[in-house]
Amino acid sequence: MPRSSRKSAPRRDRGEDPRRVADEDPRANADVDDGEWEEDGCFATERRRPPPRPPGCFFCACQRFDEDDGGDGVDDLLSILGYPPERRFGESTTEVPLSGDDDEVRAVHVQAAYEDAADGGDDAPATLATRETPPLLLGEGPAAPASADERAQAAAIYDAYAGFFDHISFRKGWKRPPFPRRDADPLFRRAARVAAMARSRDLRRAGFALRQPDGAARDWMHDAPSPADSPNAFLRGLLHATFQDANGYVEGLDAVAVERFRRRYDAIPSAG
Fold first, then answer.
1. Domains of the chain by residue range
2. Which of 45, 73, 133, 148 could covalently link to 66 via disulfide, CB atoms 3.0 to 4.6 Å apart?
3. Where are stretches of biased composition, namely Basic and acidic residues (predicted)?
């Protein structure tokens, strides 16, 4: 049987350095380079080598996707990561992708657009989305309607508000109330409901007690704005005064906490 003209690769015996064998016979590396070995000692096709990358540029397998069109592969990498191809990260931009709830991301983008317009001295663009209510803090989801106990507590707070018109100076005719009761009555009911729900759901702990159900509200009413002309200002001031005494806010509360109560509970429709 005739012996094949193709010579076999040198045998790697025990103790023999494989690197020396590879240097002596390049056919030992034929499978590594994925080429086709021919008798003339050359590769018919050689694997295409990627072009050298510039200093400071990262490289990954995705870069090879753009080799045919001369790109650097960044578009393919960003598309895999979920970013648009035109979004680039480098020295020329400080843009950072935002993550989180859709409402939070939308509010951040709207606020950034207004800040950019203000910093540049330009007017906000006409197509800019209208400002939306900031997203509620964690744990400030939709609240349940008032319970029977909360409605009873709200009625007690409302009666305390209405007691302002029983002041002795008003009954004796020495002074006139700064506003008529009919203008303040619906705002009394709203503030009483918010205060009752906040005390029941957020401030139910030992030691929380006011000397009066309405706090310092009746003292505040003497200099309050007109409920007919400024209903929102009246409601806000009335509610803040309800959580105060002569020394200020009670039980470690502050203006931010009271505003949180107002935002959350004033949106709940009255049960009647």
1. 148-267
2. 73
3. 10-30
